[in-house]
Amino acid sequence: MLKAGVLGAGHLGKIHLRLLNQSNKYELVGFYDPIKENAKKVAEEFGYKSFDTIQELIEAVDVVDIVTPTLSHFDCAKEAIEKGKHIFIEKPITKTIEEAETLIELTKKHNVKGQVGHVERFNPAFTAVKDSIHNPMFIETHRLAEFNPRGTDVPVVLDLMIHDIDIILSVVKSKVVSVHASGVSVISDTPDIANARIKFENGCVANLTASRISLKNMRKSRFFQKDAYIAVDFFEKATEVVKMKDAPKIPGDFDMILQNAEGIKKQIYFENPTIEGNNAILDELETFADAINNNTTPIVTLEQGTEALKVAHMIINDF
């Protein structure tokens, strides 16, 4: 079992601690949190070992799980990598592109692995349909959240929209050629609501909306491709797959048939992929353990996390 330690014992950090503790692929060694009162409270309430310094925790583990505010990601990761430790790092990978690229070089130099916590890649609704998404030409995403002070140290693009940026980059195999965006600050000092239109070299267009000042939560994406429409509800963990094929010469009584202006007939049919229940955070942590143990490529690499960050900054810079 890999020895793991967590940096940061806030809301998400406590979730990571609980899941690492129950995983059969990790031995949870403990955690470090710079806020002494919080560290003491978490240690007393859950029985996890609290380390006095980051250095002591890093020395005691094989894998460092970084669940700190984005601004400290780089310093924490750099220190762990230079000690020869594998790193799991929450999204966004770092604050700046330069920091992210430095981490990539450091992992190569010290021969360690890194994975970024883009958890929606492990959402069961997405995993159920991702192999059906082929060359989408139009994508629309809405990620709306009720206001929460956590995360407001960064723009909504880095807080929420980056999830959808990563998903889109994972299915569109083409370069980004242009970005047009707008963002508005309502409560925070940084934009709380944003819209972006991303155009790819192959002609695909993605329209993304993110808000952290909505009255309800919504996390939906729709993918349009030739002969198919695929919708993913990341929040409800549900999918809708509508496909078209050449209509039979003699349609059945209940077949849905469309005919275009040229007289070509298509039959509409629905697929209902099986959605397996899972804990996406546990899955991302355990697949990282598999990548380390089997010396394979993590599902969400530091390079992929960096590409998502680059697009996020293109959006922010266009405000």
From TrEMBL:
Domain GFO/IDH/MocA-like oxidoreductase: 156-216
Domain Gfo/Idh/MocA-like oxidoreductase N-terminal: 3-118
InterPro entries: Gfo/Idh/MocA-like_OxRdtase_N, Gfo/Idh/MocA_Oxidoreductases, GFO_IDH_MocA-like_dom, NAD(P)-bd_dom_sf
Recorded GO MF terms: nucleotide binding
UniProt superkingdom: Bacteria
Protein name: Predicted dehydrogenase
Organism: Lutibacter maritimus
